[in-house]
Amino acid sequence: MSAFNILLVEDNEGDVMITQHAFAGWRDDCGLAIARNGIEALEYLHRQGQFTNARKPDLILLDVNMPVMDGKECLKRLKQDDELRLVPVVMFTSSRAPSDILDCYKFQVSSYVVKPFGPRAYIDTVRQVVTFWSDLAQRPSATW
Q: Which of 29, 61, 69, 99 sits most deeply, having the most CB atoms within 10 A of its CB?
């Protein structure tokens, strides 16, 4: 089985840690990279600055509410980029705001998942999302 690379775009250190914990000892075939906001995510995806050796993600988990550049603006820019628009993006956020959900689907998000409360439910949800996108979904293949 080939590696499945995930880019987590998340500013909340607790959420980063629990996501890392979700992968610990679960799927050795998954690589997890972290960006702290939309600007860092775009730098990672364009292999700029500290991310010159970045691996193309097979999936992006993107929070809505972040400093510097929020998830909606990042998503909008991703979907306008010919090289990046085919990478599946899952909004993984605590926001249940109907306007956030609508905006993200207008910007062509692949899916919108609300983070559950509690560590066990959070870990289960992250694993379900990754399992779907890595094992069940058919993704367009592209080289980077």
A: 61
Q: Which tokens sit at 69? A: 């550049």
Q: Which amino acid is at 25?
A: G
What does the domain layout of the chain look like in residue ranges? 4-134
Going by C-alpha positions, the residue among 29, 4, 12 that lies closest to residue 115 is 12
Q: What is the pLDDT of residues 59-100, one digit of tens each?
A: 999 999 999 999 999 999 999 999 899 999 999 999 999 999
Sign of the C-alpha dihedral, residues 11, 25, 6, 104? negative
Q: Give the DSSP letter string of 39-77.
A: HHHHHHHTT-GGGTTPPPPSEEEE-SS-SSS-HHHHHHH
Reported as a single tens digit per residue, the pLDDT across 14-40 is 999 999 999 998 988 899 999 999 999
Please write down the long-range contacts of 71-75, taking CB distance under 8 Å and 24 or more positions apart. 71/9, 71/38, 71/104, 72/100, 72/103, 72/104, 72/107, 73/38, 74/9, 74/37, 74/38, 74/41, 74/42, 75/104, 75/107, 75/108, 75/109
Distance, CA of 45 to chain centre: 12
